[in-house]
Every structure is written in C-alpha cells, then in structure tokens.
Write a structure and sequence with these properties.
mainly alpha; elongated; 10 helices
Length: 243
C-alpha cells in the first residue's frame, strides 16, 4: 500500500511593501497627503476683513488626522519589519494584548502584520503617548520638551475647531492668552486660521514626521547590529524605505 503524499504548505512570499499599511511607506504617504492639503489651501480665498479661511481650517484638521495616522503606521511598520523589537515593548508593557479575532482573520500574514494589530490597540493622540510608544519599542523619544509643547498647542487649535467651531472657550483663553493684555474673549472671539497658520503647522508636523522616521530607522539598524539579527533582503529593503 502506497503512503499518502504529503501536501506542500503554501509559503507566503513577503516583499518589502507588504510590511507597510496599505503597502505604502508611511513617511512618503504623509508627505503626499499634506501636499494635497497644501494645494487646496493655496488655491483658497481668505476673508478680506476677518481673514477667516474655511479651507485652511478644515485642512488643519486634516493635518492632525494624517499625522496621527503616520505615527501609528510607522510604528506598525517597525514591528512588522522586525518583530524582535517587541522584546523591549513587552518588557515595558506586560499587559499589552492583541485581538484574537483579528489574528484569525489575518491567517498566514500575522508575521508581517503584527505591528498593525498592536498599533490599533494603542493611542497616538499626544506627544506624550507617541514618545511612550516609541520609547518602549526602540528607546527613543521623538518629541523634545519644546516640540511636545508646540504639538500640544497645535492639538489645542485642532480641538477648538472640531469641538467648538473655532470659538474661544474659557479653558482655551486661560491657557493661550495668559500674557496678553487684550486676550481673546471666550465664547465671542474666534481662532483665525489662514494660509500662514496652516503652513506653519504643516512645516512643523512634516519636520516631526521626518524626525520620527529618521531616528527610529537609526535605532532599528542599531538594534539589528547589536543583536546580530539576520534579516532577509526584503526586510533590509523595507528598512531603507522608512525615511
């Protein structure tokens, strides 16, 4: 009686782009998104008397969304490319978990999508949270104290637009106008976001995204060298696409 033939298991071929959310390197995607916003703002018109620019306001909100998405997608890519980074992460966050149902839905792609699962379970909504996630993963803190302060101001403007239509609240006024002799009046005056304000925050967030990409890539390469990890050609190629 002949022996039954063993079925050959299909091996999933992973290429460099498979390590990235939607198959696109996060920094390049962020740059493309803000270029689109910049074009919108550039073609918009501002009020002659008020200086108000609804397009700039909405685009500033978009900046916030795209930057947070970048921070999350970049973190995911680092883990996807080199799951060994999680050794540091779980030492700091021993209660970190992933959704088993999501793991089941990924089938044979868990190895190259693990970072997606983990990043989805965590918050990247502030400089402190972003620093904490990257610190626990690669021992880096992208935001300096002054940069974290600037980012908090940006988020304050974004939140005022989203939750209050840009009209000053008592909390916003007390935090932002402490040193002004003629502060904006709460529930009367409004935040003015024009082309200059948008471009100032765009430049700041782009600079931060490049800093996160560069410092994390360097830290990952250092970790690989220090631990003498053996990476595939596609893993090395993906690292090169990080910044």
């Amino acid at each position: 009686m002949s022996k039954p033939k063993r079925r050959r298991e299909m091996q999933t071929v992973v290429n460099a782009l498979d390590y990235f959310v939607a198959g696109v390197p996060p920094l390049g995607n962020f740059q493309l998104e803000i270029e689109h916003l910049d074009a919108l703002v550039g073609s918009s018109k501002e009020g002659d008397l008020t200086g108000l620019n609804p397009t700039a306001e909405v685009s500033l909100i978009g900046l916030s969304a795209y930057f947070e998405a970048f921070c999350k997608a970049h973190f995911a890519a680092l883990v996807n490319i080199c799951p060994e980074t999680l050794k540091n992460f779980v030492e700091r966050r021993q209660n970190a978990t992933v959704n088993l149902r999501n793991i089941m839905s990924m089938r044979g792609q868990v190895a190259s999508r693990l970072g997606n699962l983990i990043s989805e379970e965590h918050d990247f909504g502030s400089a402190r949270e972003i620093n904490g996630m990257y610190q626990d993963l690669l021992r880096i803190t992208p935001f300096s104290a002054s940069e974290a302060n600037d980012y908090a101001k940006f988020l304050s403007d974004r939140n005022l637009l989203v939750h209050h239509g840009g009209v000053y609240t008592f909390r916003y006024s007390s935090q932002r106008f402490v040193r002004r002799t003629a502060p904006g009046l709460a529930h009367w005056d409004s935040l003015v976001v024009g082309k200059n304000e948008f471009r100032r925050w765009r430049s700041f967030l782009l600079r931060m995204a490049k800093k996160i990409a560069t410092t994390s890539r360097t830290a990952l390469n250092d970790l690989v060298a220090r631990e003498r990890m053996r990476l595939s050609a596609e893993q090395k190629r993906a690292i090169g696409m990080l910044s």
